[in-house]
Please model this.
Amino acid sequence: MSFFKNFYHKIVRPNVWARPEMPITFRAEIMPGKSRAERTFRIKDVLGNGRVTLHGFVGEHRESEFEKMNFKREL
Model:
């Protein structure tokens, strides 16, 4: 059965928290003294390990560095 379990996890990506070109905001604790607009960047690429690269910001970043998504919030 482990073959089917591994095969299923390769086909279905269970926890995809980010998509390319999606706006995302760093938590205020990481960038103190900056407004929400200054902490918001657009995702360039989602890597296989769950980290993301951003347009205009260097490095790979993980989900815990960002605010939780609130789809009801006005942009």
About this structure: The chain has a mean pLDDT of 84.
